[in-house]
Amino acid sequence: MSLILATSSAHKAEEIAHVLERPLTRHALDLPEVQAIDVQQVIEAKVKAAYATVQQPVLVEDTGLLIHSWQGLPGALIRWFLETVGNDGICTMLAQFADRSATAITCIGYFDGTHYQTFLGETTGQIAAQPRGTSGFGWDPIFVPDGYHKTFAELKETEIVAVSMRRKATLALKQFLDMQEELRHTL
């Protein structure tokens, strides 16, 4: 089955294709950005809009950062938080809170015109007191996964793979796609 991943990120497409062990066609589509904290709500709107454009089975991925003391903010709105206050601003605003725990969540949506499914991956951790590290992107310099003392931006790629929320979501998607393929071969 040919799959399309609606993303402008070549890195994201390579990472997902590698875990799926199958090729993906990447399409950079201009999809509506639903303004919601809930990553799953954002994904449902985006994957259905992507399907309406490509008319083929399609995947859409989004990742959010849920800060527990902020009742889940910024969630899927993390991009706008980073654009307005940046990692330094998030750390500064969080300084007055004792609870620095957070959950990084990736949701991958699949839609083939009939069947809609989401696949979630979560990584729990803490928000660092200040940004650290130079690798990665986005909020990687402020997220310290549980079991580590380094931020994602300080970890080696092999360490990140072990706790990656995107990898967890992609493995769940892979299991689903493998089962679908197996069913097609038995019918």
Protein model, in words:
39% of the residues lie in helices and 24% in strands. The chain is of the alpha/beta class. Helix 1 (10-20) crosses helix 6 and helix 3 (78-84) packs across helix 4 (86-94). The radius of gyration is 17 Å and the shape is globular.
> What about the largest sheet?
7 strands, mixed
Into which percentage range does the β-strand content fall?
A: 15-25%
Secondary structure: number of strands: 7
Low-confidence stretches: none
Helix fraction, binned, reads 25-40%
CATH class: Alpha Beta
Q: Strand-and-helix sequence, N→C?
A: EHEHEEHHEEEHH
Proper CATH architecture: Alpha-Beta Complex
Number of domains: 1
Write the layout of secondary structure elements.
Elements: E1 4-6, H1 10-20, E2 25-27, H2 39-54, E3 58-67, E4 74-75, H3 78-84, H4 86-94, E5 101-111, E6 116-127, E7 143-145, H5 157-163, H6 165-186
Parallel strand pairs: 1-2, 1-3
Antiparallel strand pairs: 3-4, 3-5, 5-6, 6-7
Helix pairs in contact: 1-6, 3-4
